[in-house]
Recover the amino acids of this structure.
């Protein structure tokens, strides 16, 4: 059975080489005549390693080709203009402006795109210092239409100061976001309502680290009122001064009254053998 790189097309389909041989290549580049040629060509692009970023599968390349064909792009132009983000076909900003200019519906000289400083009224409204804009006029319309995207809009969308292009090229990002809304609001018929790629990238779900953190807190400083007391849970207490008895043994004495010390035992001088008088006889006893 004949083999075709990628998905099997139809029973008894031609080989990959036969399909490529039938694909025309002329002054306008590759000319794809049918789905079999599109699939094989898409697979060749995906496996070549020369495809634009994100075009790493036959399906993604085929989606870009189909979307670009609907917009009037050649196959290679489609790969440069259409970006697949999260399985969704999106447009590069430059391609969107190119569609407006080549539509035949634009009043010449009315397409204007950029980023400007806000007016005093816009500043008072809290729009910030900069505002991106896109302005154009369609044939048959009395006036031009302008779409803006301000710093306030970016803040409300959680984009301002976001790591990446919003930090590196804030003016350009304000401009392209204005183009994205302008394209969908006033030129959706020629752009098929597609989002711009930068806009779709900002909608990617962020990955949150949900790993619980265990903070090691330093031990609290001992309370000076209790630091000198022995720990009641410690059983092996070193002997303290009081006749060599432990604090636990002293606490266990029952009926002890201050001044009711036990009788002293007789002691003898080791050299003379004479009895050493008790301490109370030397200093006198309290009556």
């Amino acid at each position: 059975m004949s083999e075709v790189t990628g998905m099997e097309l139809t029973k008894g389909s031609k080989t990959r080489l036969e399909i490529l041989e039938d694909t025309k290549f002329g002054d306008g580049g590759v000319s794809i005549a049918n789905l079999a040629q599109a699939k094989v060509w898409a697979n060749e692009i995906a496996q070549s390693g020369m495809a634009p970023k994100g075009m790493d599968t036959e399906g993604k390349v085929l989606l870009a080709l189909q979307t670009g064909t609907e917009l009037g792009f050649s196959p290679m132009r489609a790969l440069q203009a259409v970006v697949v983000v999260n399985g969704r076909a999106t447009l590069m900003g430059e391609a969107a402006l190119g569609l407006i200019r080549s539509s035949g519906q634009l009043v010449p000289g009315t397409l204007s795109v950029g980023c400007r400083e806000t007016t005093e009224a816009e500043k008072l409204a809290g729009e910030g210092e900069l505002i991106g804009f896109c302005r154009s006029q369609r044939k048959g319309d009395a006036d031009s239409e302008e779409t803006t995207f301000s710093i306030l809009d970016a803040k409300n969308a959680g984009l301002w100061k976001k790591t990446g292009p919003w930090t590196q090229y804030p003016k350009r990002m304000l401009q392209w976001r204005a183009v994205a809304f302008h394209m969908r609001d006033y030129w959706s018929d020629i752009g098929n309502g597609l989002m711009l790629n930068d806009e779709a990238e900002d909608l990617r779900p962020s990955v949150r680290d949900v790993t619980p953190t265990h903070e090691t807190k330093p031990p609290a400083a001992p309370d000076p009122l209790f630091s000198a007391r022995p720990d009641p849970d410690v059983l092996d207490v070193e002997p303290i001064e009081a006749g060599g008895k432990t604090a636990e043994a002293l606490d266990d004495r029952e009926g002890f009254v201050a001044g009711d010390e036990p009788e002293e035992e007789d002691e003898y001088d080791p050299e003379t053998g004479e009895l050493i008088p008790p301490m109370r006889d030397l200093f006198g006893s309290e009556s």
